[in-house]
Amino acid sequence: MNFFLILFTILELASAKTDSPSILILNQYDKNLIDTKISSHFPNKKFVNSENTDPFLSSLDSLSNPASGRMNLVRDLGSEFDVDYILFHQIEDDSNRFLLEGQMFNTRSGGLIKRRMVDITNYYKGHMNELKLWIGDVFREVDKEWIDHRKLVLYNEPSEIIQDKTPEGAMARSLLLPGWGQFYSDAYNSGLVFSGLESILLTSVLVSYLSYNKSVKEFKNYSKLYEESSEQVEFDKYRALSNSEWEKHKQYNSALIYTSIASGSLWLINGIHAYIVGPRPKKDIIQKWDVTIPTKN
Amino acid sequence: MRLFFSFFILLFISNCTIYENNIDNPNDNEANEELGVFPPSLVFFPKQQTKTTSDTIRLGAYVVFSDTSIISFSGAHLNIKYDNNLLELDSLAPGWIGPGSLTDSNKTTPLFTYVENQGVLDLYAYYLSTADISIDSLTHIAEIWFKPKSAGTSVVSYDTSKCELIKFDETMISIRGTREASIVVR
Hints:
The complex is a heterodimer of chains A (297) and B (186). Chain A has 2 domains: 11-160, Rossmann fold (3-Layer(aba) Sandwich); 167-280. Helices cover 53% and strands 14% of the residues of chain A. Chain A has 297 residues and is an alpha/beta fold. Chain A contains 9 helices and 5 strands; from the N terminus they run αββαβββααααααα. Chain B has 186 residues and is mainly beta. Chain B has one domain (2-185): Immunoglobulin-like. Chain B has helices spanning 2-15, 29-34, and strands at residues 41-45, 48-51, 57-64, 73-81, 87-96, 111-117, 120-126, 138-148, 152-158, 164-167, 172-173, 177-178, 181-185. In chain B, strands 2, 4, 6, 7, 9, 10, 11 and 13 form an 8-stranded mixed beta sheet that branches. In chain B, strands 5-8-3-1-12 form a 5-stranded mixed beta sheet, with no helix packed on it. The longest helix of chain B has 14 residues, at 2-15. The A-B interface holds A 175-176, 205, 209, 212-213, 216, 219, 223, 226-233, 235-236, 239, 242-243, 246, 249-250, 253, 256-257, 260, 264, 267 and B 1, 4, 8, 11-12, 15-19, 21, 23-25, 27-28, 30-31, 45-46, 60, 62, 99-101, 136-138, 140.
């Protein structure tokens, strides 16, 4: 009796060890992007493939309860294909941007048990690696090689990213030399505008300054000649010249003040603008993109 | 940032000065009127000079009429006072009617005489020409040379109660203002 009991237990254990879960894979992506099959990277899993991804293409977030919104569909598919889980993958590849959404459903409950969204740029040939990481994470079979491959290209945490270029750096550069911060931030048009305007204003300041100094010098010179002239023809001439230079020195003084104020203000604005358009982490750049949400069925 | 602000602050401080346009020439009626000295007025040119005891001091005596004057000025008696402890009269030269110079005024050289007594100089000039009775605004009566006697400051001025300006028909022209000269000897 004991012998049979032990034998039964061993057989049960043996059969339990080999009873791996079956997974229905639904892939919605260009097959040219990923040249190998997922199953080849997870040889001990029972994958069942299906081409009909249409029921899953509608946005999960549009459902009133994303976790249980596809319960009936998942259960039906689970019965139809006799699988424990359903894995749905959708990849969008738009030039250098790569957007992966992975969803895992339990066919017994029909609920969503795991979901991952990856939204990254410039990840050269990273589609399969991300897919492997996602599935590996689901089944706790992540290969260190896959993590290393990702690290070659991506940082783990945006907060850990040390930016070579920063908004503060852009501002400092622009405050030092107008337009430099904008060029540094690849904002060439505004860089040209700021450096051009500031050049014009600084030239005006310089011209006003030189003209003011010249007028003051001439004013003093003609005043001296006027006061030294005893003859009417001479002092009439020098008085007119002296008055003319005096008026000019007032005008150039005003021009100097206003152009200096304008130049200084533009300089400050240029610094603030450089900070605003300064380089930000990539996650912020991604947020500017128009995310394409799959259309509802 | 500090460099940027320093640049502008320095620029403002050093170049925001508006100079006063207070030019003055006693021979210029416009400048005299701004000081409340109205024509016809008796003035000296230059109004101020600083010399050493070895220098010679030259001073012009002028009558300033208005720019639009049609007074037929013909002669003058000027009573000039100076500090004879500091200055000694050296020589005198007659002036001319209207703009010109000492060398080209031969045609209008007046009858000219003077009396000097203890720091008071009386000058008499009379223009004989009947053709030059219409004169310009500035009339040079005489050029006076002094020798400094010692260091100090002397004011040379007109005594208007004794000065006279006359027309060609010998009627009087009223004097409305005078300006004095200051001579500093070091």
